[in-house]
Amino acid sequence: MASLPSVVVGNTLKLESEFRKHTSTSLPFEKRNFTTTHLDKTLEPVCLDFREALSVIKDGPNFESSVYAMSIGLQVHSLSIKLGYESNLRVTNSIMYLYLKCGWISDAKKLFDGMEKISLITWNAMIAGHAQMMDIAEDSLSAHRSGVEALNIFLRLNRSNMKPDIFTFSSILTVCSSLVALEHGEQVHTQTIKTGFLSDVVVGTALVNMYSKCGSIKRASKAFVEMSTRTMISWTSMITAFSQHGRSQQALQLFEDMRLVGVRPNQITFVGVLSACSHAGLVDEALNYFEMMKKEYKIKPVMDHFACLIDMFVRLGKLDEAFEFVKKMDFEPNEVIWSLLIAGCRSHGNLELGFYAAEQLLSLSPKDSETYVMLLNMYLSAGRWKDVSRVRKMMRDEKLGKLKDWSWISIRDRVHSFKPDDRSCPPCGEVDILLGDLLEKARPLGYESQGSLEVTDEKDEETTFSSIHHSEKLAVAFGLLNTPNASPIRVMKSISMCRDCHNFFKFISVLTAREIIIRDSKRLHKFVNGHCSCGDFGSLL
DNA sequence: TTAGGGTTAG
């Protein structure tokens, strides 16, 4: 293998500093003084040490800058071919990571398919790259597709003559968590035991996270206890896991244990801690930890921390205090903060504050379909027709269509998808019969179908209709029919659950004596014996 | 001497 050019004509550092200058700014993307021509000029005299240049590009702090970095990446790629490094695995693998990180999936595939020889790192790049695609995907649908593709690549790797390593395992476990694919995750767990890679702290942490995200707090906790070493991230994962499962006391206890053994928490740890307080309505504790974070650990609060605190006040119905906190922030509230307040105002009947928050939210020109639908529902139920048509017009202007309601359930080696308007998906007859049957049984127990508001894309008018065919209902029914009695049902959903479905699953969990775990676009819902781990709060459509 | 992996609220 030819060695890489270590003598740099021009200056790699120059490229680095230019790149940093344009990406570390807090200016909104469109206001940055940043042009490709400018970068071309920077790049021109640079005959690169490819690794260094690429690592600079890949570490771009956000998606937009990464996309811009592609203009450099492409040039580096073609330069690498011109200079004869096409078959240099280190170079090619780096370029693969770059493409995948920037979301250029087809280019990565083209590169992968065209490579004469590949190494384990190439496989790992493809898997980790698809895993990261899940995070930057525009919607849950494409995120899900990336995840499934990552699983397929992992299967292909297993069938090849190469063996996965710690990097493969940690990536694929993350994919399993995002897909709520417990059975795949369990298989990977077994593999990590057989290969001895489970002792790796990153693999162990990924395993904790996988079990938690798949709804099994018991096994997450077991995996955590069995780790021989733990990093701050391992502790944070477990704290967050307890918090997400509504086990606030355990989350806080674990945080104290973490401090006791001298592991320093970070910003993300405190998000877990504060959200645990929020779930349990522990106002004093939350405020104490907030102070501790600032004073003892010198961690600057970010929007996420405020969101936890505001969420806490909103849950308790203390809307004025929530608003006070919003005013106290050093920065402008974002879409999430206003949405929290609006949801709170709706459930606690404080419409005036809700309308005020809605105006603030609209002035941020949100791009998220779900936000618009939430606003639309709010105005509709208040009979504010002027506002209804205003929001509709904004949605038209933003070219936002109907919410894409998809759900997935992973059973054994297969992932099954469901969408409400597709009556051709898996055996629909049986699913319909079961749903009808459950509906009949739920009514005497007190279930009332509420119907739900939805926005149609073509006719530009809302219709109220039964939510009986919402995708997660189909997926859960399919799961009930195709898994052993008493085993939990795990479903992933592309958008927020609606109130009606949320209510319905409580009854189903009683009627079928099953745990029903649904991860929607917002959070984890675990229905056990008529109750949901979200405490019936949270942004339901 | 190596390109690569794990944690964030609603």
Description:
With 541 residues, the protein is α+β, with helices and mostly antiparallel strands. Among the domains are: 1-118; 328-401, Serine Threonine Protein Phosphatase 5, Tetratricopeptide repeat (Alpha Horseshoe); 407-532, no CATH class. The chain contains 25 helices and eight strands. It has helices spanning 12-23, 36-43, 50-58, 63-82, 89-101, 105-114, 120-136, 140-159, 166-179, 182-195, 201-213, 217-225, 232-244, 248-260, 267-280, 283-295, 303-315, 319-328, 335-347, 351-363, 369-381, 385-397, 428-442, 471-482, 499-512; strands at residues 407-411, 414-418, 452-455, 462-465, 489-493, 516-519, 524-528, 531-532. Helix 21 packs antiparallel against helix 22 (385-397). The radius of gyration is 25 Å and the shape is globular. The model is unreliable at 1-54, 56-64 and 455-465 (pLDDT under 50).
